[in-house]
Write a structure and sequence with these properties.
- It is a single chain.
- The chain is mainly alpha-helical.
- It is built from three helices and four strands.
- 58% of the residues lie in helices and 4% in strands.
- The strands form two sheets. The chain has a two-stranded antiparallel ribbon. Strands 3-4 form a two-stranded antiparallel sheet.
């Protein structure tokens, strides 16, 4: 029968992994004992006084050593917790700095993109304006060379001598009050439309 991966062999849910396992605690205790041993032995300098010698009071010495080891372990644990806290804070600060740098880079990229679009629109607008001015100039030149007079009243079609010429060139059908070219031609039937 297959066991569920969410429970242990005893049927209990696994507990959160502890920061200090048996191996780390044993290592820290051993290190603390070593440091304390050097401290009590005079640091290996060969100078020890009679009141510091653990040989004179063996029972008290074991208790003192145990107390010193416990204190050193607690100190090391506190130092480790403080280092972990500093590391967490540094990680949070680095994440905040990274987020700010990404936001700044995105903002700069967006500004550069907007600037490029504005420049492209301005170039296209200038090119279209140039083409329109060129087309108007060509129409004026053509009208001047072909005996066609451009209309001074603001119309878009060139003016011809007669409606027949205007119709032959593809222009015509001007309405009174709508097309400024109307006033240039004679409305013989008086219906408000010329060059029909």
């Amino acid at each position: 029968m297959a066991r569920s991966t969410s429970t242990s062999r005893t049927g209990h849910r696994p507990t959160k992994t502890r920061l200090w396992g048996r191996g780390k605690t044993a290592s820290a205790t051993g290190l603390a004992g070593l440091v304390l041993g050097f401290a009590l032995a005079g640091g290996g300098s060969g100078t020890s006084s009679a009141d510091e010698s653990p040989a004179e009071t063996p029972g008290a010495s074991d208790a003192e050593v145990a107390q010193a080891v416990a204190e050193e372990t607690a100190t090391l644990h506190d130092q480790l917790a403080a280092a972990e806290e500093r590391l967490t804070e540094a990680g949070e600060e680095a994440a905040a700095d990274l987020a700010a740098a990404v936001a700044t880079a995105e903002e700069r990229a967006l500004k550069a993109q907007r600037r490029a679009v504005r420049q492209a629109v301005a170039r296209v607008r200038d090119e279209e304006r140039r083409k329109l001015e060129q087309a108007v100039q060509e129409a004026r030149d053509e009208a001047a060379s072909g005996g066609v007079t451009p209309f001074a009243g603001g119309g878009s079609d060139p003016l011809f001598d007669t409606c027949g010429e205007a119709n032959a060139a593809g222009f015509g059908h001007y309405v009174s009050g709508v097309d400024p070219e109307y006033t240039h031609y004679d409305d013989r039937d008086g219906d408000g439309v010329v060059c029909e």
